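Write out structure tokens for DDE domain-containing protein.
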Amino acid sequence: MVKIYFSEGIEKKKPGSKREKYQAPKSEHPDTTKNIENSDIHTNHAEGFNAALRRMCSAFRRKTNTYAKKVEKLQERLNVIWIIHNFVRVHYTTKEVPAVTSGVIEGGLTLEDVLRLKGGKN
């Protein structure tokens, strides 16, 4: 048996240009003005939101009879969840609706208010 030692690692780097980094065609959150420190960003926040989304919308649980067959219908479900999450439901740590905390509206909405917004009539 012969041992071979490499001074530059097992594989040498291949010559050539590096692949360009992906750049999104447009920013995802153009209206966001709040600067977030890198130390405040955690994956458990994203995972917690994903778990809550799976609890609220059966289309994200598993691919069975409940999955969304049309992208438009899935987007409608996400829009409803987004409105309830940001404008109706009180956050458990801040004790306020997230839209009130960020200064978008002065007071939270009720489900009745949201349903009235849909048709635009009283």
